[in-house]
Amino acid sequence: MGYPDTFTGFCVDGPKSWNKFHKVELKPKPFGDDDIDVQIEACSICSSDLHTITGGWGEYAGPLCVGHEVVGKAVKVGKHVSGIEVGDRVGVGAQVWSCLECDLCKDRNENYCPRLVDTYNAQYEDGSQAHGGLASHIRAHAYFTFRIPDELETDAAAPLLCAGITTYSPLVRAGVGPGKRVGVVGVGGLGHLGLQWAAALGAETYALTHSPSKVRDCEALGARGVILTTEDGWNEPWKAKFDFVLNCADATDKFDMSTYLSIVKPTGDFHMVGIPDKPLPQMSAGLFAGGAPKLTGSHLGNRQEMEALLKLAAEKGVRPWVEKMPISAESCGKAVEMQRDNKFRYRCTLTSFDEAFGRAE
Known about the structure:
Blueprint: E1 7-11, E2 22-26, E3 35-45, H1 47-53, E4 70-77, E5 89-92, E6 95-97, H2 103-106, E7 117-118, E8 122-123, E9 129-130, E10 137-141, E11 145-147, H3 154-157, H4 163-173, E12 181-185, H5 191-200, E13 204-209, H6 215-220, E14 225-228, E15 242-247, H7 257-261, E16 264-272, H8 285-291, E17 294-297, H9 303-316, E18 322-326, H10 329-340, E19 347-351, H11 353-357
Parallel strand pairs: 12-13, 12-15, 13-14, 15-16, 16-17, 18-19
Antiparallel strand pairs: 1-2, 3-4, 3-10, 3-19, 4-5, 5-11, 6-7, 8-9
Helix pairs in contact: 4-5
């Protein structure tokens, strides 16, 4: 068949063959008056993709097409859509639908809607499947489709749709700005953006990393200083010094949480956006009573934050550091393997979608 009745995507069949991709014909949800079809030009690899396809976040039934950092061209626009026209360059992140009617949605918390639909490995209320961005096209509600500013390059804009909003939203909701001291734990796909956002927002920003090789990168990304967490007693000079700590590492199950929480000011946040496969270490109530830190977390952000993020990135020069690979079954497998092994500095964007899928008629 082909577009618009079907899309084509690179899929895996299950956790046992998580790095073996092959082309599959995908059936999208019925096109609605509020929907937009995007012919994809670039899609970045996210650790969420890896956690999903390996089964770390639960079992799934394939074939599964992942990818939720998507940039492309709007090729079909529903009659109720305003602000986006056919031909516009747009992005889609890790959410493609919510009810927009519940109290959370009306309070600009649509990213916590109990009926939300994730971009992939999810089902719409009519039973249709949502398919990800390692594909020819993606279909999403207009509320979760964003115009990309001209100043942002396509390959660099893609990671902003998930990694960008995941790190930006908690910072602005915490009031991060001038006069605040922020620590960013884990300088990878998430953390290298968290450093840039915190600095762009005017905070005194520090990187916390176990990798001495990343010190220069951290400084280039806007860190005033770099704290090496492999050094004995690294936390001692920093006890109760940080207003906000953004944890972007997904190995938190291995952390000595008492050490990390000790650097947070009373009522300050140690905020989780890196999500490990395994549970957090056991913690006693006394750990929180002693210094009054808060352990918090978040998921994505709202539409207003995404629009503000894209504007700030365009104006302040915030850019993901990306390595590009032309999309194919082989390169999808290679990309997720390299993601597992932390080989990218600091994001991989798959490109050349026209060569893999051809253009819509």
